[in-house]
Design goal:
By secondary structure, the protein is of the alpha/beta class. The chain has helices spanning about 5, 10-15, 65-80, 125-130, 135-150, 160-180, 185-205, 205-215, 245-250, 255-265, 270-285, 295-310, 320-335, 355-360, 375-380, 400-415, 430-445, 455-465, 475-480, 500-519, and strands at about 30-35, 35-40, 45-50, 55, 60, 85-95, 100, 105-115, 215-220, 230, 235-240, 250, 345, 370-375, 420-425, 450-455, 495. A six-stranded antiparallel beta sheet has the order 1-2-3-8-6-7, with helices on both faces. The protein has a five-stranded parallel beta sheet with strand order 14-15-13-16-17, sandwiched between helices. Helix 6 runs parallel beside helix 12 (about 295-310).
Amino acid sequence: MSMNDSISQDDVFAFLADPASHGPGVTAVERVDTHISAIFLPEGVDRVVKIKKAVTLPFLDFAPLAARKDACHREVEINRRTAPTLYLGCEPVVWHDGHLAVGGEGEVVDWAVVMRRFDRVTQFDNLAAAGKLDRNVLLDLAEAVARFHDAAEVVNQPRFGGAAALLSTIEGNGRAFEAFRGVVFDAAAVDSVLERSQVKAERHAALLDQRREQGFVKRCHGDLHLRNICMTEGRPTLFDAIEFNDDFAVIDVLYDLAFLLMDLRHAGLARAASLVFNHYMELRDDILGLPLLPLMLSLRAQIRAHVTAAIAVHAPDPEVLHGEARRYLMEAADYLEPPKPRLVAIGGLSGSGKSRAARELSPYLGAPGGLVLRSDVIRKRLAGRKPWDTLEKTAYTPEASDRTYANLCQEAADVLATGYPVIADAVFSKPAERAAIKAVADAAGVPFIGLWLESDPVIAEQRILMRRRNASDATPDVLKAQLSYPVGPLEWPRIDSSFAKDRTDRACRQAVLLQEEDK
């Protein structure tokens, strides 16, 4: 009989849980379990050992040693796309000279993924709980996800993405909910969510299939929630992507993003979700996919609902997790009610705070936030540049500005045509520009409100000088020139933004709310 037959995986786990197995001076080993892996973190050692559990589940079979070996190698390959410094490689767990060892000569009894240890304080679920996901970190996160999606391998096969894949996900959710109907979840609530999801998937079937043909279905992360993101070398790093089931990982990029946005909102971070969503859209410009986002957000919440219910089966206090699972299901139902289409235009001279006001208003227009269209970003996109790049003066000629405003209006019309709310952020100093953006809303048959922010010029200049990571190229000299513009009669509500930022934010929200009440 070989050692493969006489040594169980429990023996491997006991070996890895023993501090002596990790070298001199190690006094403790922390073990972290998921439903498919056991991770061993020896104290004071800069490496982590991760073992695939020898389990058979509906979506994977890790019982054979060969399957675990393949999965370990695949995990390293897949995750080195985004976290090359974290994934050190794969090592066999061997029996040699009467003892177990990780690596080296001997009979292979299991396989391990070896990772570099990182500070778990920097996992994004922990940063979120500590209130440390500031704007810069979230912008970095959006850029990391956008870069990853840009570079990810396109997969155009009927099996992946498209309407059939989402309909299969809905069917799978139905099967997963079955064990908890009437026990954890109200049966009628489950049926309603599943039926409404199927209706939406069928309604958008042509768009889903078209996106696969257009290259939006890629080998993505597949499990892009806050616990699978950490800070390494000062940057957000995506790790623990799915390697064991291509059906979960080869998906539409928006479905990949939806998990992150849903998780942020579930954590009570609607503003953060809106910021990530808007900056991602600035970088990837995926307006035509917006009608799919409510369904994709709902499916992500549905999956978390039945997974949480399943975890509760083995929890010491299942009622806590049952409550969490029901909250996920409630959120899944809410996502299926898309935000109301409307157009809010925010104008004002440079330094008036309009871009910040637009950013802060966005989460109040629906999930994951109203889409903010910034003239500064559009101008740079038309010039083939990124949001933070500085443009030459030739990009600010009257002709270039007319082209920018025309594109702003067209993009706003395109977004409204998808049924999504828009916030248009531009100076809007000319009456014709203000009339043109209102005409977009009138043509779409949606509510419109224009807000004009104005600030003390001294305060505006200070704001311009303090800007960091801002798409605007305005300088104090630009502001001085703007102060002489013939703005003409203003019909939009005027908001004095010279005071505290929160006061301006409240005034903008109240103006939008009053318009809704008038309707």
